[in-house]
Fold each of these.
Amino acid sequence: MKPILGIFLAALLVGCGSGDENDDATVDLTSIEGSPNCSSIQGLRTNTYGGETLDSTRRGSAAQAQFDTTYSYDCFLGVYKYDVAAEQEIIGTVSVPEDKDYDFYFYNAAGERVASSTNEGKGVAEAIDYTVTASDSTPLYVVVYDQLASSESDFELLLRGSTVVSEQEDNDTKETAQLLNGTYVTVTGATNTLDDQDDYFKIPVSEGKVISITLGSSLEAGEDIYATLSSTDESTQFAQAYIGNEGGSEAEFTDTKSYTVTAGTSEVLIWVNSIFQLSYSFTIDIADAEATDTN
Ligand SMILES: [Ca+2]
Ligand SMILES: [Ca+2]
Ligand SMILES: [Ca+2]
């Protein structure tokens, strides 16, 4: 996420001077069919955005947006919608111009706010990492809003969304591991006590990339589950995510672990293991290694 943000900021600096709203890297909101232009929504200014709900009028005029596309807009308000699936992980970032204090909100299909990023200060970026729940439904509405300014400078919005796939049995051994494709994938699966304690997956990688796994499950007291990244022959363990509920009532647990891919590794094996009857999900994110803060 961070190197991508750096690219945004660089693009923003270029965009500010030129006033060019059709930069190759970005899509102007007003170019999306059905989008409101800024002047047409000025009259709605008295409405409150960023509240607990997003009204049906505003949901109805949201611009259809796509993952992995950067949207720029010089209005005080942008409302977008993205097609999403349950368990999908969404990472959103807004780069904010130096003279504005945009905030950032997610709403589910019913217009209920489910996540927000409201850092204080002009020029301060906003970011949300959100996992779509089963009750959220599609689409996800995304609001970028500056409550003070009559804005003349662009924000830039980018969302990434993982690809959601279901596990496919039989995957009980490394030889029958399910092949995953892509660089941002969420797998939903299940284990049980009797005959399904092991689920194996594999995913192509390349040297120098950082592969991260986030394991999540709702666990009752005493339950636990592992997800181990290793070489395809299991001779070398790279990283292990583990969650366990040591006591108390059922709750959601997550754990994230990362591994920087070394020379000679072109595929990573993922072994999910539990002796309990569980539903779980894990997200694999394969990113560039030089994830350092910019600015
Ligand atoms: Ca802000
Ligand atoms: Ca299974
Ligand atoms: Ca299995």
Amino acid sequence: MTTLQLQLIVTLNISFYPHPLMSVTLADATAAMETIQKSSRVLVICHRNPDGDAIGALIGIALLIEQQFPTIPVFMHCVDPVPETLQFMPGASRVLNALTTKAGDALVFVDIAEPKLTELHESHPQLFDKSIPSIMIDHHPGNPLFGTVNILVPEAASSCEIVVAIADLLKWNITNDIATCLLTGVYTDTGGLLHSNTSAAVYRTVARLLRAGARQQLIVTAVFRTAKMSTLKLWGRVLEKISVSSEGGAVSAVTEGDFRATGADHSELAGAIDYVNAVPGMRFSMILSEKGGKVKGSLRTLRDDVDVAAMAGKFSGGGHKKAAGFALSGKLKPEMRWKVVEEEGKKNASAEN
Ligand SMILES: [Mn+2]
């Protein structure tokens, strides 16, 4: 075989590579589409305390479904409001808090690692017992597959990437508004393409969304270049209180008092962990925060030999190997330790004076 022939084969292999996300199959995407097709209403649901990936995938898939099935009403739902920083997304004002189910509904779950993260598991258990047709789209390893159609892609950096893969497999049109929502999720779950989960597939999805007209500068400005005064003051407290734990982690904590004093709400803590995680030589980083009688822990690591999901698991939490979290009932108790060490030789010196 000549070099030229070989080169041609390699080129062909690349151009016919079906999709960066090989784990989404046409069969899965088709099953999802059929579930929607048979429904008379679609309710799309994301997790509480939503991030860019949750809201991006929520609105992105909702607008795709609406465009594809104009006669089927689509509702978007989250127990918490869309954070201010994400309100630039087209359709953000349509995200509802209240949720009621009806016969004929189909559910779409996005970015939900487990049912309790919706905070609907107790008030609406029927959502999760598979009695209502549902499509579960997620990238958290260990997801219990609570949908009737489950599209779990743990190697995806964001749920938004999975939505892109589904749309492309089904040849659904990604408009610039939809692309803007989906690119937001890709950006936020990769920390602006800086986290270790930023694979070649992520860049390919970014390119695909930019070609679809995603408003990249709108996202960058809103998500990475805008910080309220209260947010900066809260981060100031986080940074000021960093200490090194005996386990070799950079740890900081914010109390209810810190939130009150700075006027920041809990969502404004998002992103501060990346600064704590910047301390060199640490095994991991952690921010503890108080929220309504609970202590939340957010964990990160830059190391391959540290699994913060396992650490969070010890406190009934979970997540990814390099980014995880937990929540426990309780409050933070400050602990300050002082130790007086007498310097050698100084005793005699002072005695002479
Ligand atoms: Mn996500």
Amino acid sequence: MPIFTQNEINLHTHSFYCGHGTGTLKDYIAEAFKNPQLKVLGFSEHCQTPDEFYADRMRYDVFEDYVEDAFSLKNTEGLTVLCGAECDWNPSYTAYYRYLKERMGLDYILGSVHYYRDRESGRLRYYGKCLDVTPYLSDYVSEYTAMLRSGLFLIGCHPDLYCYHTEWNSLLEEAAREIISTAKETGMILEINGCGFQKKHIREDGSTRHPYPVPEFWKIVREEGVRCCINSDAHHPAHLISHPAFAFASENGLEDLLVKWEISDEGIRAVL
Ligand SMILES: [Zn+2]
Ligand SMILES: [Zn+2]
């Protein structure tokens, strides 16, 4: 069975299909061939639901086009191409997510929590727009841990997204401990997400940091010995390999915790 190290595989990418990414799937394949260490390229477009629950995601019929396009590229010579999707955790859609894997034949689905329900407007808003996450911390933790426990997903994506604009404090740490202990208990793999290195959070004093990954969060991951992986979460083919994410893993002592991925006829699974 072929086994791939983190340097050889990237399972989290977005193209023009998602509406906020750039490049076609073929552009990503061309970029992959420019990085000969990369042996496996996984497409993971943001999932839309048949009733179009997520207003700012692509239309459902476009999601179907994406899946067809990705499947047509699976026979690319010299590169293993996988077709997946990044799904927003939502208990109302677990049957649909299961259908994507078991009936529609996606190679994997990634689990994410991107949105919170704004208390004032009642609308779904992206955590990246939440200037103070404190009132929403318990929502994030309960959704993220439910996603980890669901057994549907291959990876828990950007688990520290909630720290985007809020500086590290004891409440954020408490949330981190709950998420990380759930990952440990369920054997779920947490993702060091390279997309955070493309973004900036400006602190009150004018200094900047990347919104995620957050070193304090990953220090606890290391202490608890929870398994992790690296994905670029590229939204542009040029960002296909996230060098800063690999440097982050090494600087934060996470290299020994990185899983390898085994790909067989039965699918993809982590090798510890
Ligand atoms: Zn995401
Ligand atoms: Zn993503």
Amino acid sequence: MHIHFLSWSAKAQTLSRLFLGLCSFRSPDLSPRLMAPPPDDIRRLRVGLLYDERMCLHTTPDGEIHPECPDRIRAIWNKLNSEGIPQRCIVLDAKKAKDKHIAHVHTLNHIKLIKNISSKEFDSRRQRIASKFNSIYLNQGSSEAAYLAAGSVIEVAEKVAKGDLNSGIAIVRPPGHHAEPDEAMGFCLFNNVAIAASFLLNEKPELGIRKILIVDWDVHHGNGTQKVFYDDPRVLFFSVHRFDSGSFYPAGDDGAYFMIGEGAGAGYNINIPWEHGQCGDADYFAVWDHVLIPIAEAYNPDIILVSAGFDAAIGDPLGGCCVTPYGYSVLLEKLMRFAQGKIVMALEGGYNLKSIANSVLACAKVLLHEEYVGSTQTPIFESTWHVIETVRHELKGYWPVLNVELPQSLLLSNSRPRPPEVIYSSSESDVENDEEVSTAHIINNEESAEDNLILPLSKLKIDEDNHEKLHASKQVQIVGSSTPSEACHDAQELAPNNTALCGFTWRSLLSGVEVWYATYGSNMWKPRFLCYIEGGKVDGMSTRCCGSLDKSSPKQTIWKVVPHRLLFGRSYTRTWGEGGVAFLNPERGTSDRAYLCIYRITLEQFNDVLFQENSLHQEDATLQGLESPLLDLGILDYVVKNKSLPLETLKNGWYSTVLFLGKEDELPILTMTCSASDVERFKSGKVPTSAPSEPYMNTLVNGLVEGKQLTKEEAIAYVNDAASRRDYKYI
Ligand SMILES: [Zn+2]
């Protein structure tokens, strides 16, 4: 049986423990805070709370494990109940959105699809339809849940806008902020917050809501919401999200700082694109203080809708950031002085059940003006100042309040360097000198983005065995601190285990995803390749491989010939001694032919091979210590779309670029090779090309012969030809 799995995962996270020592570093302006309002305020406060079990009906077909699971909202509801929060709030009934209200945001075709998708007539087609979208699953409960989620945000927003409530929280799913006018994506079917905003503006003018601030603090960019209001100055859309040079989901330029809106909406779209993971409370506070709050003051919104995803929360398995419940409480509290405190929170992402429950609890207490104590101790990243200055510069023409330089003293104080990537200095074959690797640079992704071949990751298959394993590996929650003093401690607890969150480890997730690994060098000989899986070495190798943690053999082996050039670069390798090693030119050439032996393995194993190929098993870095995948589902999605991606985490390795070579049986064919800049250096002669040593040559020949591709003589001629060609223009 095959089941579908969806794309989504944190980009390779970094070794957070390396700088956890900085936890004791206290930012002077971030001190513990108490909120104790006058008693009569409490009496007057009316905070709405909406939860409906029917939104749990949307779940994966056949019960596959998925981060966006019904337990997310149950965990929040249970936590709030355990603290008696509903008793202090106005509990509202869920309502289904009306089509005419949804139609302010979505196309009629899209509405029709979501309306009918759960009906019987779609039973046989539902899976196929879901697989056409990016990261979407659908079942018999999806339609109802989608209508309830959108309608419930409308319900809370209307009551807050009217003044029946001071503020409110809609605990809804499926989430909404990725859903575009004509497309479901990223676990989102209808764009709940955009629909509620459009409802207030277009359906209820009598409520006097003319200007809406949408604050999207989900760790992913709110691409759908941005698109809906991109030219509309009635909505100021603010999104703070991981961007990682455009590689973090949903990937591309939409979440970039320069996407500021257009037409009448120019200046009303604000993106804060984090350059890397691990951003925490202090980074978010700085963005609030130096971008969002000054602009909100100038904009003076009539109501604030928060796209409240909690996947930037500490311990989230997808987000890789470190916002504590206290951090969220401060972010929310800073918004409460606008719009007479009219704030509507709508749940978006957030996949660590304990973290999201604690974070929503913290926010509920803020809305209720109850005490929430905390402190933040980690300093701001230097890159955060860079992002803030870039965004301020971009927007200062629209928001004069930003047209002042931030004081140098602020920029220089209390910042920390960007988080370290996995550090390694050599590849399978050792580098000749450090200076050389330091010159390696990342190729322009646009250069390698040829045709836009999209393989939705929902098509990736998990077989039954792996599915069982996935279930078996489900672990107990970690994380999330409800008290601030625990936060730093939690971070230390978390970091080494950051992969074991929310019931998932990256290994358990990726062990269920199959890919084809295309080999063109010594790995074409299966016994040599198996060293990377089972560990050990074959004749001619001077060092042993550690093997993958999953030692199961490839499920299948196939051969292909591709229009890429095989070349032999470097002149010495640690594993093989004197002589060059094989690379595949990432560029295709019309007259080029390279043989590929392609193994069907899991994405977990592919990561372990990638790790070993780049000799990440240096010093104390071990496979067991590989806290994050080098290539997760999100990165895979990007590679598949863009054909090639140099991995920042592997930039000093020899096989740092992952290439997508097409599909076989619906699964992506991937290989790893040198970067485009290395090819340039081969061409210029800065790095020698060199014939392979005899033992290395033998492995290629053995592979080609045993794979029945060539005779021994033909194989020798093929390798010699590739090694001897000096026509670099064809490299
Ligand atoms: Zn998210």
